[in-house]
Amino acid sequence: GVGRKAAALLASPPRASRLTARPFFSVAPAGCLVRELIDLMGTGRRVTRLVLHLLLVPQLTELDLSRCPKLVSKTIAEMVAHRCKNLSLLYLQGCSRIPSDALVDLIESLPGLKKLGLSETQCNTQVLSAIGSTCQYLCELDVSDCKRLSPESLFHLAYDVTAGSFSCQALQVLSVGGLESSARSQNLVRALAFVLLALPSLRFLENEFVSEAVYEIFRQQFKGAQIAPGFPSLEELVQRRMAMRTDKASSRLTLPLKELLEVDESSLPIVCTVCPHLTKATVLLDDGSALSPAFSSWHALSNLTLDCGRPRQLRELLSVTAIIGTQMQSLSIDGFVVKDESSFHVLLGHCPNLRKFSASIFLSLSCQSQKSTDWGAAFVPPRFSHLTEFTLSLSSLHTSTPSQPAPGLRANLTSVLKNSPGLESLVLLYLPFCLDGVFEKVLEPRGTALVHLRHLSLLQCKVSSSTIHLLLAADNQLDSIHLDKCPDIYRRDYDELLRRVSKEGFDLHIEWQ
Ligand SMILES: *[C@@H]1O[C@H](CO)[C@@H](O)[C@H](O)[C@H]1NC(C)=O
Ligand SMILES: *[C@@H]1O[C@H](CO)[C@@H](O)[C@H](O)[C@H]1NC(C)=O
Ligand SMILES: *[C@@H]1O[C@H](CO)[C@@H](O)[C@H](O)[C@H]1NC(C)=O
């Protein structure tokens, strides 16, 4: 593809004369090729100002300068504005040398922009205002960590006071992290509510306080909320949204958000009511006694991250996964405690459609493996046909207790590895049992387990070098193995592995310390 062509071109040093001598600027996909060239050279720090001057051609439709931010001066910004009027994507993350007024001029010359990245730049209220009045097709905007922005700046993105009209109505993704340099402010929550109400296409608003803004929208008690003069009030925005809704029968205002990054468990019922279409969420669990029943009404949710503030029993989660487990594509759980081993097994059994699973679990097994509740008789080990990434960290809840052998978990891990034919990435951390037997069972001759495995990371796990040799000999796609702090791998084993890799010509990177 194009990437290969660009790479071949770069195999010799990119002298400007060579580049200009080639006729490829005039061919149709030149814009694409130029973008890849800048990407490639940016990574290798080979872009010089001269190269940039030569690469900024009118055919460009996508330009990513975030890899060489130091080179991007006011002059370069002016040159982009002057020459590359056809851009639909422009990434300037970290290009903090461009003054605000040059950013305004640049934006005003790019009416076709669909994606714009301005995080960590001198972007200020005037820049947002220019975006609002110029970029009517904009779908994605990143203005996080811009020190010159205040919560009030956001009004100007969504509403053009001079024209008296709404702007950026196609915007779907807006990142405004880092606006809250001080603590949470009522102004910020209000500005977020304004944006949520004024931008009808918004699917993802990235900021720590979005769920609070959703809460305000639910309560609709905006009395006394001061919006700067010239802007519609929050009440007016609610009325406009109610008039725009397609389902006139429903009396409730809902938002089309698809992702929410930080939801407190206590606000979950309200978030689910206002944002019924969420597909991806991170929920921070508090110390409540039972998991919120609101989880069960979350029909569109496919990607869920759960973080426990304090350790909670994994068993509690089973009532949730029993209902929404089959719709899970990605599940990440952090901070749960396993007291009886069967809960892990039941949890996985509830989620056969997972693509990505990540768990950081504490073990606190009782001496006698207690008889578990019957969650489903005659449990057949599920086949995880879609699973590509599996990460498991198991540590003791109390560092003083000796590690527990956990034979059930060991059997369950073996079963997952055997029954996930598409697995590409496997990361295991601090497992309390030896992995040699696990891999021996999984890699039995003529099996199809792990044939797609690319990345293996075993941090502080008991595994011997003969098992790693077994993996090298097996049929798979391994290109990186990390064995840091594995107590049974010694320097001589590592050297031996490296020798084998080089002797057999494997394209494989092994790390060990
Ligand atoms: C701008 O892009 C459009 C399609 O994206 C293309 O048809 C047009 O030729 C381009 N203009 C220039 C000057 O490259
Ligand atoms: C959910 O996770 C899967 C697997 O990682 C990913 O392919 C998919 O794009 C994610 N969906 C959303 C809405 O982020
Ligand atoms: C998983 O472990 C449980 C014990 O905790 C055991 O009953 C079950 O058979 C195991 N499942 C598989 C597939 O190994």
TrEMBL record:
GO biological process: SCF-dependent proteasomal ubiquitin-dependent protein catabolic process
SUPFAM superfamilies in the record: RNI-like
One GO location term (cellular component): SCF ubiquitin ligase complex
Segments forming a coiled coil: none
PANTHER family documented for this protein: PARTNER OF PAIRED, ISOFORM B-RELATED (PTHR13318)
Protein name: Uncharacterized protein LOC103062817
GN (gene name): LOC103062817
